[in-house]
Amino acid sequence: TSDDGEINSSMAHHTASTRLSYKHKQAFANLSAVYVSGKEKSARSSSAIWGDAYYDLDDYTRVDANVGYNWKIFGRDTRFTLYGRNLGDKHYATRYVTGAYYDPGRQIGVELAVSFF
Fold first, then answer.
1. Residue 98 DSSP SS3
2. Where does the chain show beta strands of DSSP type E?
3. Could you give the maximum distance between any two Cα atoms of the chain, in Å?
4. What is the model's pTM?
5. How many CA atoms does the CB half-sphere of 87 hold within 13 Å?
């Protein structure tokens, strides 16, 4: 906390993050989590040209995970990854100058990456 009441009311005072990673030969897995505590109720608004809008800007936990495998195709480094973002499907908002961006919630996907250089 600081000695500025306006700043204190607009920031989360408790955050925590962790990451657990595992690698075995070419296979890998990662699990990460982020916790952001609640803010004062007055800090849940964001001014915009049309007036004040209220967003759920705080008190969320986000968990992400991925598993993958590295190998070579035609001598090129290749990686396949299966990932999940925001596995708890929490629709929290991130504040910007005139409003907020909402997290889209749970995302599941695959990625295939090939190095050409």
1. coil
2. 15-24, 27-36, 45-48, 51-54, 60-73, 76-85, 93-96, 99-102, 107-114
3. 61
4. 0.79
5. 10
**What per-residue confidence (pLDDT) applies to 88?**
95
Please report, as a single letter, which amino acid is at residue 113: A
Q: What are phi and psi of 46, to 5 degrees?
A: -140, 125
Stretch (H or E) spanning 9:
helix 5-10
What's the CA gap between 72 and 82, in Å, rounded? Answer: 18
pLDDT of 94 strictly over 90: no
pLDDT at 2: 67
User: Alpha-carbon distance 7 to 11, whole Å?
Assistant: 6
Q: How far is the C-alpha of 65 from the C-alpha of 35, rounded, in Å?
A: 15
CB 33 within 8 A of CB 60: no
